[in-house]
What we know:
Blueprint: H1 2-35, E1 38-39, E2 45-46, H2 68-78, H3 98-109, E3 114-118, E4 124-128, E5 134-136, H4 139-147, H5 159-162, H6 190-195, E6 200-204, H7 209-215, E7 221-224, H8 232-242, H9 246-256
Helix pairs in contact: 2-3, 8-9
Amino acid sequence: MKTKIATLLGIAIVLCSLFLVATLSATAIAQSHTTQRVSAPGGVTTASEDDYVLDIYGNANEDDTIDMRDLTYVKLIFFGKKPVTELADAKYDGKINPLDFVQIKMIIVGKEKELTIVDSADRTVTVKKPVERIIPCMPPIAEAIQVLDAVDEVVGVSYVITGEYKKADKSRSFPILSKLPSVGGHPVDYETVLSLNPDVVIEYVHKRPDDLQEHLPGVPVLGLSFFDIRLMKEEMQKLGYILDKEAEAEEYLEWYE
């Protein structure tokens, strides 16, 4: 009898152990999936909705914003107290030094002279600041600029936004932007774009911004979407940093979410 009871107890202990291991493994896998970066259609890299990295150089601790914690983190990297992160190189010069401290502080107060970001096409682009002349090449990008109340910085738009394409009336959707100079579309008129002397051109991510960049020497070209809801938060934040409209971007995202 005692032998039978001991055997049953042994089986029970083994089963409990197996259940515990399975539970811990499932939890670990779930946590891994929560933080894992995933690939979106078109080769666009993004992160999960609840946990992603804001791909702007200066985001040293690689969370979803740039603040004093990044300044602290990059100093700890410099003194060998924290591991190096890619985005800690705020000056984007291949090294971590006090210039990165200054750059992060300037980003925080909105006084940086340039900003380096990774766009939605996984391209690293440096934009001179402040941005005062911008050309959006697709309606969703123009809509995002309107949301951030930055239409005064737009100097030209694609022919879809002016309404030339398909002879559409865009005055209600884009009351101000539809009256601006058209740069054409599919592809844009490169000479017209250059004549407008833009600080940055924002092209739709799936329209090969690299090709456009080749024809616009000296003009940074960003690839963004504003179609893909998985990218909306990060893209709106990036646009906010580019246009010095971080507060407006956060206000919109609070409503959007």
